[in-house]
Please model this.
Amino acid sequence: MSEMHMSTVNKTLEALRKNNMQAYFCATAEEVPDLVRTLINKGDIVTHGGSVTLAQTGITKLLSGGDYCYLDRNAPGLTREQVQEIYLKAFTSDVYFTSSNAITENGELYNVDGNSNRVAAMIYGPKSVIVIAGYNKIVSDLNTAITRVKCIAAPQNTQRLNCDTYCAKTGKCVSFQKKDSLMCDGCRSEQRICCSYTVIAQQRHKDRIKVIIVGEKLGY
Model:
């Protein structure tokens, strides 16, 4: 990672701390599980939202290793009702893991969801929330975060999930056909994943949210 990128990472880490979030840096994805082990306790009830980054950093493997009470939303054979039950149990978990669609240099977490279970748990419920993100998720401000979701995160996730949406087919949100593309503009597909928009900034409960930025490009 270049000096310029490292400078941006350090600025973002400091801003997150000013917003009452714990902030950490790992140079590589391989370092993340060792850090996470220091932030959680054996026997903790743990779960997570949908995230490519968690798999890339070995966190889902760590959680399923037997040391934790793992609520696995992706376990084989689960019915829709059982998955929904895990979504609800997440609110009383000890630790909730997720990534972030974008992290601003001002220390804000910007996220957009379809089902909204992920953003809901990030905001309220779990005792601790651990956010893991590659440095590629860092953006200058919220306007850039909005554009990042419309042009990178949403298109790539809809393609991964085989959603029938405009952005899955074209690589960017339909809202860019307009002169002014507003945050909540988008397609009308029933499979649209951009439904709930959240900005997490100054935290009332200090250090509940912990952000780990990794010096590699991870996730979407």
Observations:
- Residues 3-140+196-214 form a domain with the Rossmann fold fold (CATH 3.40.50.10420).
